[in-house]
Specification:
With 223 residues, the chain is mostly beta strands. Helices cover 7% and strands 22% of the residues. It comes from Nonomuraea diastatica.
Length: 223
């Protein structure tokens, strides 16, 4: 079923969507739309308004989101396998309890998004803004992470083992029990070094400039 430019705001849509079909939403307003438990496998959302849209418990396997977005979209307990988000505003989006497997976020605005308590094998993120986001306990093990802003984000308990961070920022980031073993941080802005960061960065690879900044913060001058 195709929806083109329709105002679907505040409507209950799950019963209108037949299982086994591919549903396409183009330029639709889905503000506070109720898609709880909806069969949306393979669905496409192109430049749609997703302000407080409710995707809780929806089957979104293989779905594609391009452009558009909105504040506080809810994906709690939804199935998101092989889902792609490209240039989507996911500010304050909620993913708690969601199954995230092979999900990719590219060019997304994810300020204040909450991915903690999500399940599955994880996700990749590229050229996105995760300022103030909560990724507590998530695994980005072995990932190549490029152009991501983690400023003031909560990365407590995250696993970045053997990950590569390129053109990323970790300013004001919370790193309690975060692991960067064998991670390559030479292309990242590590922000102000403190004890918590130094513990998290144990075993990581950094460059000479970063090392000098760490030593300088402890009153040690390298000549």
């Amino acid at each position: 079923m195709n929806f083109d430019g329709e105002d679907l705001s505040h409507k209950a849509l799950a019963e209108r969507l037949a299982a086994g079909e591919t549903h396409v939403f183009r330029g639709c307003d889905l503000t506070e739309a109720d898609l709880w438990g909806a069969p949306l496998a393979g669905a496409r959302f192109e430049s749609c308004v997703l302000e407080q849209t409710d995707f809780r418990k929806a089957d979104l396997d293989g779905a594609v989101f391009t452009g558009g977005g909105g504040m506080r979209t809810r994906f709690n307990d939804a199935d998101l396998i092989d889902v792609t988000f490209t240039d989507v505003d996911l500010s304050s989006a909620q993913f708690g309890g969601a199954l995230l497997t092979d999900v990719s976020f590219t060019g997304c605005r994810m300020i204040g998004a909450a991915l903690t308590a999500s399940r599955g094998t994880g996700f990749t993120v590229t050229r996105s803004n995760l300022t103030l986001a909560n990724l507590g306990g998530c695994s980005l093990r072995g990932e190549h992470i490029e152009g991501v802003r983690f400023d003031d984000a909560d990365l407590s308990g995250c696993d970045f083992t053997e990950a590569t961070l390129s053109d990323c920022r970790l300013i004001g980031t919370r790193l309690l029990n975060t692991t960067f073993a064998k991670a390559d941080l030479r292309g990242a802005d590590l922000g102000q070094p403190d004890d918590a960061k130094l513990r998290a960065f144990a075993g990581a690879v950094i460059n000479q400039t970063q090392a000098n900044a760490i030593l300088a913060a402890r009153g040690i001058t390298v000549l």
